[in-house]
Amino acid sequence: MKNLKHKNNSIIIAPSLLAANFANLSHDIAIVEKEGAEFLHIDVMDGVFVPNLSFGPQVVKSIRPISKMVFDVHLMIIKPERFIDDFACAGADYITVHFEATDKIVETINYIKKCGAKPGVSIKPKTPPESIEHLIKMLDIVLIMSVEPGFGGQSFIPESFEKIARTRELIEKHNPFCKLEVDGGIYTNNVADVVKAGADVIVAGSAIFGAPDIGQAVKDFKNKCKLQ
Ligand code: DX5
Ligand code: ZN
After folding, report:
1. Residue 132: CB partners within 8 Å, gap ≥ 6?
2. Global pTM value
């Protein structure tokens, strides 16, 4: 693989709020922000697209004033076009929808832009990256799921490495400014390989908010992401 634009840039760490202490979100968010995590990854689940429930726009709105981090909202909901406006108004910077969740993907991407947010598209582990090739030129971020969406704490699916590399090639071909984010099962022992495969935004829930020292976990991730 040649011309890897992302190798010249620093890797972005996106702690996933799903693994934070819900009784003290402001405390946990302040720690990851202080240690230099640039994105806050916010997983929205509807109990239909995935078998779990999480946050709605009200939570995004409530935490918006306490943080300057980039709010990276990952919508795991069916027909996400119904809620774009709500999340944009609540303060989402990036809004990522699932390719598998809507039959109006182009309209949804355009609507995210119209609402003033940056659009992203995510694919589940069994969806090939080539299925979204035609969309990449419209996107600010592509999100590759390296576990089945729905729950934190799962193991990274090894076949994801090859998918990440294929997605990186498609991004270099169509829109090198588009970010490539990977989500699920990333820890300090595999993050360097995820970056080498082509990722430039790393989501980590359990490995950061589940760590005994959240701040140290962000530091450890940042160190491991420095490319040799
Ligand atoms: C899973 C979510 C992930 C999750 C990652 O559906 O999209 O963002 O929080 O959690 P870990 O890092 O624990 O696998
Ligand atoms: Zn996520």
Report:
1. 99, 121, 123, 142
2. 0.96
